[in-house]
Specification:
- About 80% of the residues lie in helices and about 0% in strands.
- The chain is mainly α and about 80 residues long.
- Helix 1 packs antiparallel against helix 2.
């Protein structure tokens, strides 16, 4: 997965450099770097929490929020 991300990011940077100018290229480069303060153990803990609760979240979104909000707004009230 990492190779694909790196290749995609590289292609994006090349396109920005060709068409977007220095400011766009500089912005893309700065947001592509992971900050030093990132605690990867906390990121992994968050990923595990998200994955473990995903089925319940998807059920609530499907049957309450999304359906009610988009197809029949008064159901969501």
């Amino acid at each position: 997965a990492d190779k694909g991300c790196a290749a995609s990011r590289s292609g994006t940077l090349e396109a920005v450099e060709r068409h977007g100018g220095v400011a766009c290229s500089s912005f893309i480069e700065s947001v592509s770097r992971v900050p030093e303060w990132v605690d990867w153990e906390k990121v992994r803990a968050g990923q595990r929490a998200f994955i473990s609760r995903l089925p319940g979240c998807a059920t609530v979104l499907l049957h309450v929020s999304l359906v009610g909000g988009f197809s029949a707004p008064y159901i969501a009230e």
